[in-house]
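> tool_call: predict_assembly(chains=two)
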Amino acid sequence: MSKPRVLCAMSGGVDSSVAAYLLKSAGYDVVGMTMKTWSADGGSANRSCCGIDDVDDARRIAAQLDIPYIALDMEDIFQKTVIQDFQSEYLKGRTPNPCIVCNYKLKFGYLLQKADEVEAEYVATGHYARIVEKDGRLAVLSCDHEKDQSYVLYNLSQAQLARIMFPLADFDKDKIRDMAWEQKLTRVAAKPDSVEICFVKDDYRNFLKTTVNEKLQPGEFIGNDGQVLGKNEGVAMYTVGQRKGLGINLNEKTYVTEILPEKNQVRLGRRQDLFRKEMRVNRINWMAKAPTTESFEAQVKIRYQHEPVKCFVAPQADGSLQVEFSTAQEQVAPGQSAVFYDQGIVLLGGLIDSCS
Amino acid sequence: MTISFAKYFDSNATLPISDFHRSTLLENLEPMGNASSLHAYGRRAKDLIETCREKCARYLGVDHREIFFTSGATEANHIAIRGLSKILLEAHGQVRLFYSQLEHPCVLDALASVEGVTKIELSLDRFGQPQFDSYRSSLGAGDLVICMAANNETGHLIDFVDLHSSKSTQEFELHVDMVQVPGKCKFAMSGFTTASLSGHKFGALKGIGILFKKRGVDFPALFKGSQEKTFRAGTENLIGILSLSIAIDELLEKEKQWQAHTKRLRDHFEQRIQNELTGINIYGLASDRLINTSNVCFEGIDGESLLFSLDLLGYAVSLGSACSSGSVEPSHVLLALGYTESQARSSLRFSFSHHNTLEGVNSLVDAIVKTVRRLPRKD
């Protein structure tokens, strides 16, 4: 009796290639699929992902693994969901995480839809994360190494989690590359990881300048007392905690401490002005933790690269959360995601709306 | 056959070589010299090429001096279109190139590469025939008409009767892409200036094709060399040429029975599909078509999803135009024939051959019906 069919998302990178291999060697009926999100020129030459070369690589790996393969053109919808959200969030003075939007709105949604079409019971990706069950609820459990990707997966629903497999869960990144070499998946074994944002080749500011330049309205830099310190290029060009590229010299280390989009202003200050004690989080997805109105303690990550810190969470009547950090945190950026953990398990997550 | 082609319904894309073909190839593929060499080894190679050339010519009903071997129909189309355009420009100063969206992408590409001429795209009438009417009386020297014999996607045949009669009195040039013809229908090549054929479409190896060039028409090759009477540079593809000859022998012997068999299967397929599913539209049922082709629009169904589901069950069929980069564009032919983009994306091409069986066709239809009933409708 053969194992069920799994639709495995293959980006053309080493992680998803090895994920497909692991599933195949475990006896699953694997079907590989690339969701082509972006086809900028020179796609594989630098950090971007899922361009034409990557589709070729994924197809080649599928052929080597002897699994059926399909490439799905998602460029249009990627533009309309992920890229547009990215642009509009920055224009609103927020700091988006497009990978989270992509995973939530695109990747898993379409993957599961396609899985139904091809009669696959499960879907799989090359994410470094684990799925566990706790008190009758499914949740993502982080991996013990720095490649853990549980942070970007907090939006998965219970129904989705029931059909997702993460074959790389128990492995270290180095082991994955070794396996790629061992299995002669040479096309991907030496490929660098795609880091940062897949559709931005260098700096997000250049991307915004190229794509939404007409919407960038210059405004003012202001200080703690509201005094005007200089000109800014448009709130989209800045992110909370930013120190470089301000184009202003104030004789001391200066940081972006706050963005005021309604007035098109960017507040500058010193490092100590970056610290916040509280934040409001909305657009919540309850994962391991069932929805509740009672306050609770948790560990929270407010950025992808952030060590979780202790906090107190008070659910509000409108469905948002008022969160108090046990120690003030710097660089709390509206638009970023806040993911709450307990012993590595994702309890819930949402978007940072404001902070104080 | 070592690999079964029983579930292969994409014959218009290519045909596999038969077991007989393979063994005959191996038997006849002796170590050879270079056909351009002056010694006995060279002469032997040259003899093989010329024997094959004569065979091709006889099969097509033309002179052996009008047959040139190329790497395929793509190359033949490029040679003809670019070459004819060039000499016409030199002779007349002004050139009109007539074509339609029925043409294969490689022909459209060849057209795009030609400069200095006036390109006139002909519209298609409701039977899918290119509309020459407004130009018919003015066609003459300095005009090049590009018109395929049979459309690879829909299978419908182009009606050359009027063109042929005009051609005999008016001196325009006519290039015909005949790729889908051999083995599927007969075509008289009278009046053609040039024509292109592709070996692998009628059971020869991939990578070999034929350019027909009427005697007395001279134009430069794409790149100069000594082979093929200086017309097509490069040491000849001996095994490809040999393969053409073997494929033609097979056709001469079996073409008629293969066609009868294939037509029966195609017709049975269409009958079952129409009986068992609703929202089905088959292109050109009332027109003259290749006996093996069926282009079916499954209204409301995503063609790509259907194709892939069939693929997972082992069946090979085709969408209008495939692209390995992962974005499938809707068929330019279907759009030109008046399909909406949605209808074009809901259309699949099934092309049958003597490799298929009734049993295979029945299981294909079963799979299609089951999948179509299961797939969600497009919104």
